[in-house]
Amino acid sequence: MAVLESWCRDRDASLSRSLVAALYPLLILAVLPTVAAWAATFKPVQVKAAFIYSLTNFVHWPIKAAKEVDLPFVIAVLSDEEMARNLEIITRDDRIQGRKIVVRPYDTVDKIAHCRVLFIGAAAKKPIRDILKRFHAKNILIIGDTDHFTRQGGMVGLVQRGKRIHIEVNLEMATGAGIRFDSKLLKVANIVHTEN
Description:
Blueprint: H1 2-10, H2 17-28, H3 33-39, H4 44-55, E1 59-60, H5 63-66, E2 73-78, H6 81-91, E3 95-96, E4 99-106, E5 117-120, H7 128-135, E6 141-144, E7 156-161, E8 164-169, H8 171-176, E9 180-181, H9 183-188, E10 190-191
Parallel strand pairs: 2-4, 2-5, 5-6, 6-7, 8-10
Antiparallel strand pairs: 1-9, 3-4, 7-8
Helix pairs in contact: 2-4, 4-6
């Protein structure tokens, strides 16, 4: 822990991969207090970006999507430039499932093309339900951090309560898109159902 504390004191303003590596215990070991306190020293957007990146290790896409080895692994970010910047920093020179990671920021849903992960920012102009309908059943993991995101049909919600980020998962919506979650993730996530 002393090494981690020393690293925290010496880190620069940008989010490094060490944050990502340190967040794995959050997902696997269910938020130990010492790790949660350390994560609280970062901005919420930085921690959420690391969660988004880490989540890809606990998601299984359909075989059809997994065979796209020649294509980059695209993370689309709608209406949240700060999230896109943080994701670009932590994914730089890295790969997911052997594929180069590309983060693409978008200001409108109409411009979004091929992607494997879509993060919908709070500033999105269209209602969440309308955006979700557009991408339903397209093998895209859809993540958001607005209130009741998963209850509106989002697949993964990053919910901030106090200084901690909690994961909500809507299994019904993920299954409908052919996406499965690893049991390790489901053990620490709060399972949520879509509200009408």
